[in-house]
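Entry for the shared binder. Reason: the reviewer on the internal report wants the predicted structure included alongside the sequence.
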Amino acid sequence: MPRSRDVTLAQVLTVAQMRAAEEALIAGGTSVEALMEVAGRGAGEYVRRIAATRPVTVLCGPGNNGGDGYVIARHLMEHGNPVTVVAARDPGTPAAKNARSLFKGTVVGPDAELHGDVFVDCLFGSGLTRALPDDLMALLTGLAANHHLRVAVDLPSGVESDSGQPLNADLPASDLTIALGAWKHAHWTMPAAAQMGALRLVDIGVTLQPEAAALLQRPRFAAPAPDAHKYRRGLLAVVAGEMPGAPILSATAALRAGAGYVKLLLAGAPLLTPAPAEPVETRALPPELVAAHGDLAELLADPRLAALLVGPGLGRNETARQRLRAVMERAIPSVIDADALMLLGPDLPLKAPTVLTPHEGEMAALERAFGLSGDAPRRCRAAALAKASGAVIVLKGPDSLIAEPDGSVTLAPRASTWLSVAGTGDVLAGLIASRLATHADPARAAREGLWLHGEAARLCGPAFTAGELALAASRALAGALS
């Protein structure tokens, strides 16, 4: 069966995995020089498009990333772009020396004063593990400041690839970052991801690597079957608590993400303070959302329930704990969010396929509950929690990711920064729970819900509310129908 380049190009590699991928290509008969030529010309074409006819300055370091820079410069010169190479150090690898010998254009030393339109950073790539020395840091920042557009090749120099952490303070931001061969974790991990501008990838032919993380892809949704009905499409119950807004937001989103039937379980307590003439909760709910009052255990006994969502607006008192316990005892596929995450512990074991959706503070609480240290990159922490709990973990934030109990990790592309508003986490929980109700696969539901969340935010544009985000979910889903 031929390999899928779509899947392969969606992988996200550590430095060690990238080296293994390159070594496999070399073992298969491709030379380092040939790989450098493919990578450099691919990156050079992106630079040529952004530069148009404007002059380009390429900063080359001593390693193979610098060699890529010489290939980029040669590609630009062949296409008529004025180009100057700044050699920060003499080439130090055979492939970089070869690339330097093939470039017949202008090469200047690090003391040259250059100003221009486009600056290309090929100082260091993904293997850097220590801070740039003062002279190279000054050279990098000076050239970046003296040019209008800044392009980083593979990674911005001074960024640690596996963690996304800057190795120097005050590194210049890029307008475009061109990944070579495969995505690296820093491309999708804060704080580095915020400084990279637009992202592009040059394919050099690497194969799918074992245990590689993956970039979240657009899912493929199908319309309901011709004989579908509301229960076959999935009945989702959202367990309410002491605060009304959050579960309504979750349920509103869930109604628009595929589930056939969404119920709000009020468990015998009024959702809002009733008014004499008409209960406020009746007026506050969407007309298509069914609100059920009564004993929670009895409400949860409905054999038609396909999935449960508990946590948004639940509260953290003993009543909330008992509601969470009732959900978990039912052993139905569940999404556990918000307040419920703060109540989890060894006395509340997970008994069904479950998705946990913590933000950073909730993540720390879960790590304490499960005896985990929390001293590792986010993806490693999420993977450790997934293994310890047996649940799929959606670790929310500006660099959201999904970790599964088998060790699989999926990284989400950067979503709209307008998501930083109250209630959007409740919407995400509703989207994931709705998808879980349709097929009972927690990892798939997490991927689908997280993608819908980001796509709905894109469709909303700027300055939206959580309610508007929830309403946009059906438009997001429509865009991914197969």
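Summary line for the report: The chain has 17 helices and 19 strands.
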